[in-house]
Write a structure and sequence with these properties.
This protein is α/β, with parallel strands linked by helices. It folds into three domains: 81 residues, Orthogonal Bundle (Arc Repressor Mutant, subunit A); 114 residues, Periplasmic binding protein-like II (D-Maltodextrin-Binding Protein, domain 2, 3-Layer(aba) Sandwich), CATH 3.40.190.10; 101 residues, D-Maltodextrin-Binding Protein, domain 2. 41% of the residues lie in helices and 22% in strands. It is built from eleven helices and 14 strands. Strands 4-3-5-14-6 form a five-stranded mixed β-sheet. A five-stranded mixed β-sheet has the order 11-8-12-7-13. The protein has a two-stranded antiparallel ribbon with strand order 1-2. Helix 2 packs across helix 3 and helix 5 crosses helix 9. The longest helix is centred in the first third of the chain and has 24 residues.
Length: 313
């Protein structure tokens, strides 16, 4: 049987964890899917899947073969695109991921422009306040905020963002303005898990970093919910500058302890190496990188930072 076909069937079964779901995805009969998997296992001389009456699970060899098969099939698709001259005109499906508010503010304008320029491209945008696995979830391009772990993914640095402490004027009038990080221990803390997952908040300033252990009164997984809480004068929260820029400009929130901020967090565009030769991926990355590098929230310098701090509100 055709090796590429067998790999395609196996990837579908492995990702769906179901012969029936894989048959629907591939528009094949369940019997044809079963024959393909049995033929592949016989050819390799190894069990790739564990079948029960209720589910299908990958063996350890199956998990490794699934990763390898994905890479091989992506490389074949890329080679076909190049040979067919697709690189001259982006088309096909593109999957993009970023944190929720980053997606709304930074990514959506680029996606709209990209889709207007290239009518043969379709995009799935996944804006989530969690780390998305590009390989497992089929993402072509992702934007990540923060320091990156070691990875086989390719990363392009495009900027940096501030992580700031903020509270409403009403809360500060009622409870006082913290002057030092240690003062936070007597304030009500709202924790946005996506921005500050640790209970130990680190601060820089004057070359003397300090760590304060905080005890949140409210912890939320949604940054939007955290913003609602501080706008409601519940307490102090640590958020990314771009997430509250509008509220700061309107005077509904104020930055506190600015002199103790840590160094800004890096922002990277991530992509899978095997997909970088694709026209749609390469073209979108170029557009997105240019846009992010020019955005004032991504790369404002120390002078701009002081101006922002001194602006009304």
């Amino acid at each position: 049987m055709d090796q590429i076909h067998l790999m395609q069937v196996f990837v579908a079964v492995g990702e769906q964890e179901s012969f029936v779901a894989a048959s629907r995805r591939l528009d094949l009969s369940p019997a044809a899917v079963t024959r393909a998997i049995c033929g592949l296992e016989a050819q390799l001389g190894v069990r790739l899947l564990l079948r029960t009456t209720r589910n299908v699970r990958l063996t350890e060899a199956g998990r490794r073969y699934l990763d390898d098969s994905r890479e091989i099939l992506a490389s074949i698709a890329e080679a076909n695109e190049v040979a067919a001259g697709v690189n001259s005109a982006p088309k096909g499906h593109l999957a993009v991921s970023s944190p929720l508010m980053c997606g709304k503010l930074f990514i959506m304008p680029c996606l709209i422009e990209f889709l207007k320029r290239y009518p043969e491209v379709e995009v799935s945008a996944h804006f989530l306040d969690r780390v998305v696995n590009l390989v497992d979830e089929g993402i072509d391009v992702a934007v990540r905020i923060g320091h990156l772990p070691d990875s086989s993914l390719k990363a392009l640095r495009v900027g940096q963002v501030r992580r700031v402490l903020c509270a409403s004027p009403e809360y500060l009038a009622r409870n006082g303005v913290p002057q030092y990080p240690i003062d936070l221990q007597r304030h009500t803390i709202v924790a946005a898990a996506g921005v500050s997952p640790s209970l130990e908040w680190k601060f820089g300033g004057a070359g003397n970093p300090v760590t304060v252990r905080i005890k949140p009164r409210l912890t939320v997984t949604s940054n939007d919910a955290a913003i609602d809480a501080v706008l409601g004068s519940l307490g102090v929260c640590r958020l990314l500058y771009h997430q509250i820029a509008a509220e700061l400009a309107e005077g509904r929130l104020k930055i506190i302890l600015a002199d103790y901020e840590e160094a800004p967090l890096p922002v990277h565009i991530l992509h899978r190496e095997s997909n970088f030769g694709s026209s749609k991926v390469r073209t979108f990355i170029d557009l997105l990188a240019t846009s992010l590098r020019a955005h004032p929230y991504m790369n404002h310098n120390d002078r701009a930072r002081r101006e922002l701090l001194m602006s009304p509100g």
